[in-house]
């Protein structure tokens, strides 16, 4: 993991098209701004983990449904 120190209004760049800028620092909370292409998905960690969990549950339900359909299909 790369660790950098930045002050208010300073930024870092990731590649050619992503800029992360420190907007403000208040107590133990830091506000950042992210300038990135609109097709790039950006999520807070807790939201990303929730999406992953929902995707796992949806895949599991899909498998359960497929198994149910296979077991109940007419036999030739």
TrEMBL record:
Keywords assigned by UniProt, alphabetized: Bacterial flagellum biogenesis, Coiled coil, Cytoplasm, Repressor, RNA-binding, Translation regulation
A single Gene Ontology CC term: cytosol
Pfam families in the cross-refs: CsrA
GO MF annotation: an example: mRNA 5'-UTR binding
Localisation per UniProt entry: Cytoplasm
Coiled-coil regions, chain positions: 44-71
GO BP annotations listed: bacterial-type flagellum organization; mRNA catabolic process; negative regulation of translational initiation; regulation of bacterial-type flagellum assembly; regulation of carbohydrate metabolic process
Top-level division of the source organism's lineage: Bacteria
Subunit structure and binding partners: Homodimer; the beta-strands of each monomer intercalate to form a hydrophobic core, while the alpha-helices form wings that extend away from the core.
HAMAP family xref list: CsrA
Function: A translational regulator that binds mRNA to regulate translation initiation and/or mRNA stability. Usually binds in the 5'-UTR at or near the Shine-Dalgarno sequence preventing ribosome-binding, thus repressing translation. Its main target seems to be the major flagellin gene, while its function is anatagonized by FliW.
Family: Belongs to the CsrA/RsmA family.
Protein known as: Translational regulator CsrA
Native source organism of the sequence: Halobacillus yeomjeoni
Gene it is expressed from: csrA
């Amino acid at each position: 993991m790369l660790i950098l120190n930045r002050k208010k209004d300073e930024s870092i760049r990731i590649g050619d098209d992503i800029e992360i800028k420190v907007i403000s620092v208040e107590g133990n909370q830091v506000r950042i701004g992210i300038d990135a292409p609109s097709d790039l998905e950006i999520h807070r960690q807790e939201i990303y983990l929730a999406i992953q969990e929902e995707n796992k549950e949806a895949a599991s339900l899909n498998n359960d449904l497929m198994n149910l359909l296979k077991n109940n299909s007419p036999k030739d």
